[in-house]
C-alpha cells in the first residue's frame, strides 16, 4: 500500500511542464502549512488546551524561551495571512505572553512567554520531536529527502525575495 502511494506520488511529480510543477508545488506548500496548523491544534486539544489556534501555538513556539521583538516575527513572514497584532492581543488576554513597549520607541514591542505560554511551547516542541522520529518509519521520509526539500524551499524563497528586491 505504501509502495503504491509512493509510485502515485512519483508519477504526479514526474510529469508536466515546469509551470505545472511550479503550480502544484505552490498548492502543496500551502496545503502542508495549513495541515501543520491542524496537527498542532489537534495535539493541543488532546491535551485539553482548547483556547488556542494552531497559528497562535506556533507563534508561542517561535517566540522561544527568551524575548522576541514583534517586528522580527513579522519580518520572518511565518505569520503572513494572519493578523500578528490580533494573535498577540489574544495570547496576552489568555495569559500566554507578556507584551512590553520600549521606553525609547513606543512602536517597538517585545514579546515574552508566561509560564502558561512556556507550557504550550514545550508541548509543540515535543510534538515536533515526536514527528521527526516518526517520519522515516511511517512516511518513508529520510533525512536526505528533507535536506533536498529545504534546499529547494530556500531557493524559492531567495527567488521570490529577488523578484521583490530587484523588481524582476
Automatic annotation (TrEMBL):
One matching Pfam family: HTH_27
Alphabetized InterPro entries for the sequence: HTH_MarR-typ, MarR/SlyA-like, WH-like_DNA-bd_sf, WH_DNA-bd_sf
Domain HTH marR-type stretches: 22-158
GO MF annotations in UniProt: DNA-binding transcription factor activity
One record GO biological process: response to stress
Full protein name: Putative transcriptional regulatory protein
Organism this protein belongs to: Hyphomonas neptunium (strain ATCC 15444)
Amino acid at each position: 500500500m505504501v509502495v503504491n502511494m509512493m509510485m502515485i506520488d512519483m508519477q504526479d511529480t514526474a510529469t508536466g511542464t515546469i509551470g505545472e510543477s511550479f503550480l502544484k508545488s505552490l498548492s502543496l506548500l500551502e496545503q502542508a502549512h495549513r495541515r501543520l496548523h491542524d496537527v498542532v491544534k489537534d495535539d493541543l486539544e488532546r491535551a485539553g488546551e482548547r483556547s488556542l489556534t494552531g497559528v497562535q501555538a506556533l507563534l508561542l513556539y517561535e517566540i522561544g524561551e527568551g524575548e522576541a521583538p514583534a517586528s522580527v516575527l513579522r519580518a520572518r513572514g511565518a505569520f503572513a495571512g494572519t493578523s500578528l497584532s490580533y494573535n498577540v492581543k489574544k495570547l496576552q488576554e489568555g495569559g500566554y505572553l507578556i507584551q512590553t513597549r520600549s521606553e525609547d520607541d513606543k512602536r517597538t514591542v517585545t514579546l515574552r512567554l508566561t509560564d502558561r505560554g512556556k507550557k504550550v511551547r514545550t508541548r509543540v516542541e515535543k510534538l515536533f520531536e515526536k514527528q521527526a522520529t516518526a517520519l522515516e518509519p511511517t512516511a518513508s521520509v529520510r533525512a536526505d529527502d528533507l535536506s533536498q526539500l529545504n534546499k529547494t524551499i530556500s531557493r524559492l524563497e531567495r527567488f521570490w525575495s529577488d523578484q521583490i528586491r530587484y523588481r524582476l
